[in-house]
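Wait, mind explaining this?

_____
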Amino acid sequence: MEERPEIVSGKTRKLQTACGSIYVTLNYTEDKELFEVFCTSGKTGSCEAAIVDALTRTISISLRAGLNPENVIDQLRNINCPKIENGGKSCPDRIAKAMGDFLEGNRDKSSYESRRGEEDRDDHNLYEECPECGEEAYNPNAEGCSLCINCGFSECS
């Protein structure tokens, strides 16, 4: 299992769930590979917060052990919140969205893709100038929503 370096880079996104806002922090290595995930909500001390904490710790250990993050995303996507009668976006689903958007924005830099033998995309076809920070790190098509991998700007957040 990969040891945690002293310093890692990360991005935090605010996302809406059926139960309110959550803040998902994705930390990554110098190679832009996901390394660990944290999530907080307004319900500190609740059973929900404890379960989300346990989930993100498990995701982080999986990532450090080398599990492809897309396998994690596939398991968490489309889990509905049982508190809402007709279902609604759950914390696990929103964590999967944040992870998927990150991977989509970094697909050309990810060694996970090369391990699977897929071709890398050309940077110039993927990124545009971000309307927020001005860097050429804006992917207008990240999982159906825009995302800047430099500043975290998204039109969907």
